[in-house]
Amino acid sequence: MGIRDVTDIHEEFDGDRLPPGQRETERFPVLSLNDTPDFDPDEWTFTVRGAVDEELTYSWAEFRDLPTDTQRQDFHCVTGWSRFDNEFVGVSFPEIAERAGVADDAVHVMFGAMDGYTTNLPLEECMRREVLFVRELDGDPLPSDHGGPLRVVTPHKYAYKGAKWVDGVTFLTEPQRGYWEKRGYSNTANPWAEDRYTTM
Ligand SMILES: Nc1nc2c(c(=O)[nH]1)N[C@H]1C(S)=C(S)[C@@H](COP(=O)(O)O)O[C@H]1N2
Ligand SMILES: [Mo]
Fold first, then answer.
1. Which of 11, 15, 147, 172 has the fewest CB atoms within 10 Å, i.e. is most exposed?
2. CA-to-CA distance for 89 and 46, rounded, in angstroms?
3. Confidence of residue 1 (pLDDT cuts 50, 70, 90)
4. Pick the CATH number of 42-193 from 3.30.70.20, 3.60.20.20, 3.90.550.10, 3.90.420.10
5. Which residues surround the ion ligand 2 when the cut-off is CB under 5 Å?
6. Residue ranges of domains in the chain
7. Which residues, listed in sequence order, are joined to residue 71 by a DSSP beta bridge?
8. Which of 90, 87, 89, 91 lies closest to 138 in space, CA to CA?
9. Which residue's CA is minimally distant from atom 22 of ligand 1?
10. Which residue has its alpha carbon closest to ligand 1 atom 2?
11. Coil, strand, or helix at residue 160?
């Protein structure tokens, strides 16, 4: 099985690989609001809700059976560091959307997480195969501090758009804002436009 290299995604945004104002780091800093939640594979569930044809609930065993994609991606944190060439294994957002069936009036998505974190994106910005529900990083199970067992990655956005410890996604018929989007970080979060802070 091959690796899909999507580290050229910056070309779509007419930018350099290292977005403006970012510094490349080899380390992978941990940025969390709260403590890392406990993961019990027998209790864990993932739900798909809202404006869908069929609401879905997955156990960890069921989620692990979904088809995955392996991708090489860059990761840009709004606080100014970027980590290149992360190797992620995960289930793509369109794969999940396809299984639930997206309602015609769905326009937006809210991601939820085990620590209460939320983050939002327009539906069209989620319907890309680079938006992954990741369970492996660089050949190992995703470390719990980085969101294990499952997190979202959004290589076209600052990393706060990717919920660690993700446990559900809700399809919405109107935009809503997540945790940081209500508290001053940009709703759009385009690293190549340096959309770091909200202007409202
Ligand atoms: N559930 C959850 N997801 C989260 C956060 C969080 O506090 N809780 N922090 C966000 C922020 S601000 C960033 S920069 C990235 C950091 O990911 P990392 O800790 O793996 O570097 O996760 C994002 N996702
Ligand atoms: Mo962040």
1. 11
2. 17
3. low
4. 3.90.420.10
5. 31, 77-78, 160
6. 42-193
7. 4, 88
8. 87
9. 160
10. 164
11. helix
